[in-house]
Design goal:
Elements: E1 2-7, H1 12-27, E2 31-36, H2 54-63, E3 67-71, H3 72-77, E4 88-89, H4 91-100, E5 103-107
Parallel strand pairs: 1-2, 1-5, 2-3, 3-4
């Protein structure tokens, strides 16, 4: 199965659970793509804390060949030109992810 996940939140628990699900699906041999939009595009500024090791989850997700993209317009609205976590994408990229996914989930 191909799973598309949209992360719209910069809350640590939302990001942590998004990547936990992605990792679980990848380990079960599914394909997973995560699209960061709205506050989710701020993922590179969400700090780890004692409960949520987000940077470790993101690293593991990438190591397992999960794909992550960030909304370029969302980044621009936040005064950023790039994401330190992943490549920039567009609404066309999001639409393509949705069209190619068997299931799409939204966190946040």
């Amino acid at each position: 199965m191909k799973l598309g996940i949209i992360l719209q939140s910069n809350k640590p628990e939302h990001a942590w659970n998004t990547f936990r699900l992605g990792i679980t699906a990848l380990k079960e041999n599914h394909q997973v793509e995560i699209f960061l939009m709205n506050e989710g595009s701020e993922l590179d500024t969400v700090s780890d804390n004692k409960d949520f090791d987000i940077s470790a989850r993101v690293a593991e997700f990438k190591k397992l060949k999960g794909e992550i993209y960030a909304c370029g317009t969302c980044l621009k609205l936040r005064g950023k030109e790039e994401s330190k976590v992943c490549p920039i994408s567009t609404m066309s990229g999001l639409l393509k992810m949705i069209e190619n996914s068997d299931k799409v989930l939204v966190f946040g």
